[in-house]
Amino acid sequence: MVTLIFYGLFILLLLLGLLWILVPALYGLPSIPTRPDRIRKALKLANLQPNEILYDLGAGDGRVLRIAAREFGARGVGIEIDPMHCAFTWLIALASGLGDQVQIRWQNFYKADLSEADIVFFYGTSKETARLGPKLARELKQGARVAAISADFPNWQPSAFDYEGLIFIYRMPPIKGDLASYLLEKEK
Ligand SMILES: C[S@@+](CC[C@H](N)C(=O)[O-])C[C@H]1O[C@@H](n2cnc3c(N)ncnc32)[C@H](O)[C@@H]1O
């Protein structure tokens, strides 16, 4: 009987682990988390303020939301396609006493309403930024910021850039341009 329970638990854990890896991969964006120091740098560069609302598009294990809540006093809303990551983020937020500040939604970020966000955090590739750009420009309010890690938004000029962390910050409404036009402007 004990052996049966052991095998049952093992298979359950294996299935949950597979879901954790496979669902993000199916959506083309594997669950590779951002390093905490890179997150802090991006949130500082985006000037995240207490009580502002930060959306993390593809929230993964929820670390961006927890850092935003704990260290910046912000409210974090995570949009995540994988139910396992959602459950994990929700449980850790509760266990760390951040239940009031951190919210997780099981949803596709291309379909999420982003109009209340003060800051949008995104770690992904240029494939997603190309598709997300028009949606963000349409939905985000004036003065909202976008913090993009690794990939920039095509045809937008950043308002700040961190070379080491490859972090791009944009202020809404977006200015036409790109990284080159930003660097040229800075040199003037
Ligand atoms: C590279 S990880 C980033 C995790 C977290 N934002 C961080 O920086 O640590 C990308 C996450 O996006 C999620 N994802 C991929 N496509 C998505 C979609 N269309 N809608 C919502 N989440 C998505 C994946 O499941 C994965 O957890």
List the main descriptive attributes of the protein structure presented here.
Rossmann fold; 6 helices; 43% helix; 188 residues; alpha/beta; binds S-adenosylmethionine; 9 strands
What does this 3D model show about the protein?
The structure is a single chain. With 188 residues, this protein is of the alpha/beta class. It has a single domain, classed as Rossmann fold (3-Layer(aba) Sandwich), CATH 3.40.50.150. Helices cover 43% and strands 20% of the residues. The protein has helices at residues 2-26, 36-45, 63-72, 83-95, 126-139, 179-187, and strands at 53-57, 75-80, 102-106, 119-123, 145-149, 156-157, 160-162, 167-171, 175-176. The chain has a seven-stranded mixed beta sheet, covered by helices on one side. Helix 2 crosses helix 3. It is elongated, with a radius of gyration of 18 Å. The termini are far apart. The model has no long low-confidence stretch (mean pLDDT 94). The site of S-adenosylmethionine (SAM) has 23 residues, from helix 3 and strand 2.
Summary?
This protein has 188 residues and is α/β, with parallel strands linked by helices. It is built from six helices and nine strands, in the order H-H-E-H-E-H-E-E-H-E-E-E-E-E-H. It has helices at 2-26, 36-45, 63-72, 83-95, 126-139, 179-187; strands at residues 53-57, 75-80, 102-106, 119-123, 145-149, 156-157, 160-162, 167-171, 175-176.
Count of strand segments:
9
How confident overall, as mean pLDDT?
94
Specify the CATH class: Alpha Beta
Low confidence ranges:
none
Query: For the report, how would you describe the main beta sheet?
Result: 7 strands, mixed
Fraction in helix: 40-55%
Shape: elongated
Number of domains: 1
Bound heterogens, unique: S-adenosylmethionine
The rounded distance between the terminal residues' Cα atoms is: 75 Å
Order of helices and strands: HHEHEHEEHEEEEEH
Q: Could you give the order of strands across the largest sheet? A: 3-2-1-4-5-8-7
Beta-strand percent range: 15-25%
Helix/sheet category: alpha/beta
- What is CATH's topology name? Rossmann fold
- The whole-angstrom Rg is 18 Å
Write the CATH architecture name: 3-Layer(aba) Sandwich
What is the helix tally? 6
By CATH, the superfamily comes out as Vaccinia Virus protein VP39
